[in-house]
């Protein structure tokens, strides 16, 4: 992108500074997000300087048309920007124009009418079956206190063994899985929807061991999994433990608690599991959401084929 010494007039720069300050103060956006929005709008102003034949001010952008924004996206795409970068940049420009519109300084209709670039669907990144078994093993946990190691193993086993979201596992009441006969969990997921999920014997054993070692009384009206001081266990604790295990066990950077849920679905599908059943176990509202795992399985088959076939 051609750099101009002056890419925008002072009134536009002042308005952008006020907008960025508002995003940080009122919406509490992260510093990195604010930096990205500043960079995206600066690049947009640079484009407009060349596109319009001079540094733009508020008067020059108050009636931006959809065609102007399309030209900008095409220009960025020709420079190698991907769909995610373009989508984020467009989101920032829309936000800025809406900010100006609320102050009666611009019309944001042109930006609102423009469709964001279609984002590529990224496939979930499950762990291998061997790595998943290591992660959920009590013996591989890094916590020094036995009850905390047992707790972490029990949580991770429920993510992999039953496909729970981490919020669902940590939200289980203290009375759940208290008996060897409790082989089915009633889980409340996104949107308040309830589903029934079978619990493997290994998960029951992991929870029973945690219950045996936990120093706190697990009231049925409270939560099942407790933090070190007895309060409700926070997801960030499990995420940090998983981060430590990535290093200790030489796991890929994609090994996260949520990757265990992906692994649950992918490994079931790879062993012949029915897609509709997996949808119900995961609590997906739409089958199309679950179908992404067929892409993972197909990708794995192609990897094996290319590695093993003599003519590949």
Strand order of the largest sheet: 1-2
Listing every helix as H and every strand as E from the N terminus to the C terminus, the arrangement reads HHHHHHHHHEEHHHHHH
Low-confidence stretches: none
The percentage of residues in β strands lies in under 5%
Word description of this protein:
This protein has 15 helices and 2 strands. By secondary structure, the chain is mainly α. A two-stranded antiparallel sheet has the order 1-2. Strand 1 (184-188) and strand 2 form a beta hairpin. Helix 8 (146-162) packs antiparallel against helix 10 and helix 12 (257-270) crosses helix 15. The radius of gyration is 26 Å and the shape is elongated.
Please describe the topology of this protein.
Layout: H1 10-25, H2 31-52, H3 58-61, H4 66-78, H5 83-102, H6 109-113, H7 129-136, H8 146-162, H9 166-170, E1 184-188, E2 194-198, H10 201-213, H11 235-248, H12 257-270, H13 275-282, H14 287-290, H15 292-308
């Amino acid at each position: 992108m051609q750099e101009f010494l002056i890419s925008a007039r002072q009134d536009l720069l002042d308005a952008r500074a006020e907008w960025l300050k508002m995003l940080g103060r009122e919406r509490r956006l992260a510093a990195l997000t604010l930096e990205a929005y500043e960079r995206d709008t600066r690049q947009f102003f640079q484009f407009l300087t060349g596109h319009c034949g001079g540094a733009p001010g508020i008067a020059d952008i108050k009636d931006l048309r959809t065609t102007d924004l399309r030209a900008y996206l095409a220009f960025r795409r020709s420079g190698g920007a991907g769909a995610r970068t373009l989508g984020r940049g467009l989101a920032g420009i829309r936000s800025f124009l809406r900010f100006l519109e609320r102050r009666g300084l611009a019309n944001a209709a042109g930006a609102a009418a423009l469709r964001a670039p279609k984002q590529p669907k990224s496939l979930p990144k499950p762990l291998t079956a061997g790595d998943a078994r290591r992660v959920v093993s009590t013996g591989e946990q890094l916590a020094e206190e036995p009850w905390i190691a047992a707790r972490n193993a029990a949580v991770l086993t429920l993510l992999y063994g039953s496909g729970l979201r981490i919020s669902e596992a940590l939200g289980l009441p203290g009375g759940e899985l208290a008996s060897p006969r409790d082989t089915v969990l009633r889980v409340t997921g996104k949107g308040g929807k309830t589903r029934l999920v079978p619990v493997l014997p290994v998960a029951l054993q992991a929870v029973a061991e945690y219950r045996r070692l936990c120093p706190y009384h697990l009231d049925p009206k409270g939560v099942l999994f407790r933090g070190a001081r007895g309060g409700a266990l926070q997801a960030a604790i499990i995420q940090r433990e998983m981060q430590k295990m990535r290093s200790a066990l030489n796991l890929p950077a994609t090994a996260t608690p949520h990757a265990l849920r992906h692994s649950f679905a992918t490994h079931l599908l790879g062993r012949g599991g029915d897609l509709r059943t997996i949808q119900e176990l995961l609590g997906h509202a739409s089958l199309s959401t679950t179908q992404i795992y067929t892409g993972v399985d197909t990708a794995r088959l192609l990897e094996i084929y290319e590695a093993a076939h003599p003519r590949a």
